[in-house]
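Input sequence (201 aa), recorded before submission:
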Amino acid sequence: MLCFPYEIGSAKSLPWGKDAFQKAGSYDAGKIVDDTLALLKTERSTLVRMETLRRAAIYIAQNQAKGADLLAKISWIAMDAEAAGKPSAEAWFNAGYLAATLRQNGCDVGWHVGTDKVVDGYAYIKKALALTPDDAAMQFGAALVAFEHDESAFKSHMQKALAGVEPGSDLAKSMETNHALGAQPIKELKAKFEVSDASKK
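Predicted structure, token format:
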């Protein structure tokens, strides 16, 4: 979730450098919470939101106060929508993916959010997928969260992600450049995870 950036083309995200961990030197990280919330509010692409949350987690590093503040606010957005009878897959995914990414980055916010199968955030992500099961990027994100924790869940999410990915898309490129998956072309990833082109709806 941290080591391999997601391909987002020219989409707007947090200011960044040239590699996976190169933060923008001119960026005021004191604005990270407000800037991240503003970007998530308008961005519909799951992959762009994943990259924004990845960058936010790296800017936050081990700052418990900032991590807790951002995670609490993003979680509240999901809970408020749920309470209003308008559950949001995007909001639940944002909260779950941030929780998992912060934890992977060593930022202990003081509590475990959406824990499932000992993975922070995974319960929230599963709730998001129950609302939008055909979101291939969301399935990819879920696979990365389950990676190293639940082999069966990881494989299941990857199969669904690969069944829905468009060759040459930003999502495809993000999969192909992820060394945790083997840095393989989509065709080879499909063979590895036993996904046929006929499985795509």
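Checked by second reader. The mean pLDDT is 94.
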